[in-house]
Amino acid sequence: MGAAANGTGSVEEKLAELGLTLPEVVPPLAAYQPAVQSGVYVYTAGQLPMVEGKLPVTGKVGGEVTAEEAKQLAATCALNALAAVKSVAGDLDRIKRVVKVVGFVASAADFTGQPGVVNGASELLGAVLGDKGVHARSAVGVAVLPLDAPVEVEVQVELVDAEVHVRA
Q1: What single DSSP character describes residue 2?
Q2: Are 113 and 71 in contact (CB under 8 A)?
Q3: What is the three-class DSSP state of 123?
Q4: Which of 59, 112, 147, 156 could form an SS bridge with 100, CB 3.0 to 4.6 Å?
Q5: CA–CA gap between residue 44 and residue 32 (Å, rounded)
Q6: Strand, coil or helix: what is 101?
Q7: What is the pTM of this model?
Q8: CA distance linking residue 112 with residue 105, whole number of Å
Q9: CA 94, CA 107: separation in Å to the nearest integer?
């Protein structure tokens, strides 16, 4: 069985090279799925920067959370999004390209650096996926996010085929 066939292909090898481990899929906080596939597209739900089931920090960016901390949290959100994609695609090597990233930043009233924060997600996807990680993006400032998270990221990817992976 080849590396791509057993789910440990080049994308996961690149994660390992970067010192990253694909986490378990973050369980939903309400009535939704972490990711769904429609044809060749996978849409993730908004991913919080959960690490081992907990938020490492809470609060508003530009207040209790620095922009640099939030940028790192956005990268964690993107890593969680990749886990959600894998849960429905079966193999991250099926990613043809990242189409769109939407980042929500819980912002203090005077904070305007949302694009820099969401760069954490974009840069992680680029580091892991190379040219396939280049995407369109929105970075939106909001008053509050679930669990008082500083950042939330959702991702849309295109797969190389429409095969549906069924989790056992």
Answers
A1: -
A2: no
A3: helix
A4: 156
A5: 10
A6: strand
A7: 0.92
A8: 10
A9: 35
Q: Which residue has the tokens 């922009």?
A: 67
Q: What is the DSSP letter of 92?
A: G
Which secondary structure element, helix H or strand E, spans residue 120, and what is its range?
Answer: helix 114-129
Length of the chain, in residues: 168
Query: Tens-of-pLDDT digits for all 168 residues of the chain?
Result: 334 344 446 999 999 999 999 999 988 888 999 999 999 999 999 999 999 999 999 999 999 999 999 999 999 999 999 999 999 999 999 999 999 999 999 999 999 999 999 999 999 999 999 999 999 999 999 999 999 999 999 999 999 998 877 654
The distance in angstroms from the start CA to the end CA of the chain is: 19
In degrees, rounded to 5, the angle at the alpha carbon of residue 149 between the alpha carbons of residues 95 and 53 is 70
CA distances 26 to 22, 105, 168, Å, are: 11, 19, 17
Beta-bridge partner residues of 140: 104
108 C-beta neighbours (distance < 10 Å), count: 15
Give 29's DSSP letter.
S
Residue at token pair 């994308």: 11
Please give the single-letter amino acid code of residue 149.
A
| pLDDT number for residue 1 | 30
